[in-house]
Fold each of these.
Amino acid sequence: MKFTLGFSPCPNDTFIFDALVNKKIETGDIEFDVILEDVQTLNRWAIEGKLNISKISYGVLPLILDEYKMLHSGGALGKGVGPLLIAANPVDIHTTGFNINDYTVAIPGENTTAHMLFSLAFPDAANKTFKVFHEIESFLLSTAGQCTLGVIIHENRFTYQQKGLHKLIDLGDYWEKRTGYPIPLGGIAVRKDIPADIQYRIDHLIRQSIQYAYKNYPVLPEYVKLRSQEMEETVMRQHIDLYVNNFSVDLGEAGKKAVNEFLKIYARNNQASSVKQDVFI
């Protein structure tokens, strides 16, 4: 049996899936046709039902629940891992004169968790431009002196200060204080038309792949280094340490509650009567 599997080239994903896709663990009769893409492309493909198994942002989950369920392993969820709102110049967003609509805000994809969390903090924001996540720092630097802000994720959390950019608010911290739950950033979706027993086997294989990766850590697999866009190894490890944790091995009840809270807020913000809650295999 061969299944299409999509995830990003970011260190957290390649670290998680290295052992699985490079046959460092036994997968039996299950094989994978691997596609590496940025998360917004994966989100769009999930809406189209293109891949059998895919990393997605939880921000797109309400739109794909007719076709997909979520696995328990392989995702990114935790505390202190959320997106940041930044600017080329310091801006005090807490002053009475601050108006988010005086600014154009670059966001890493329309259906991303970052967009959802930004909308939670700034529900009235209207001037948004959607870009691939690694384009946002350059956008801010090229528009310095203009009224632009940007939401950053992934390794840009570790590099924005080196480029002279300034943090305005930690959107993940805003979520945590508002809800008391860890932040559900992304997870692994599996098509419902795959038999349930195979879904559980895939979930177990991903868990095994993470456990294998940790056996040799902090040594980085070549698979991670070759796909990390010339990132320094220290930044790769920061990325892995931030986004791969116990929730990646198994969401558990705490993780599921966080996702369900996310779906409730989505329904409220989008004036939807309800969103399915039975989202996991």
Amino acid sequence: WCMAKPYDTVPGVTQVVSGYCGGSADDAVYEKVKRQETQHRETVCVTYDPAAVSFSDLLEVYFYNIDPFDDGGQFIDRGRSYTCAVYWADEEQLAAARDFITRVERETGRTVCVSLEPFAAFYPAEEYHQDYAHKNPEAYAEEYVSSGRAERDSLRAKREKHITKDAE
């Protein structure tokens, strides 16, 4: 859900909803997901205008804000609920995600641990989880740093270095 804030600033993104995806249980609620009882992941559902932003651009935002090499969760959050996945809606999105992962692996020489899964169902999280960064900016900022997200893996720095170098 730390991904809601980065997507909020992307032109063409019209809505970001925190929730759950990827499990088989129909009762995806925070306490059960957090305890790893439903096989769902904490996710965000991003609604966007494809004329204004591409799916590949959304993948860039995602990969800049996660540790794509960690197969056990994200930062201090551990377990399946916190592992990374891209839920694709069609073959075009699947191909874009595969191409993106191939590019990251080639650039870094590391294996990406982001699952690619067909979208099936999304369950919005409870209201108190929605827009958390905006409703609780001080708590969000503290959690962002204490979780280790502020010092994420070298992928972001490496990719930004390439962007800066290309701009020179």
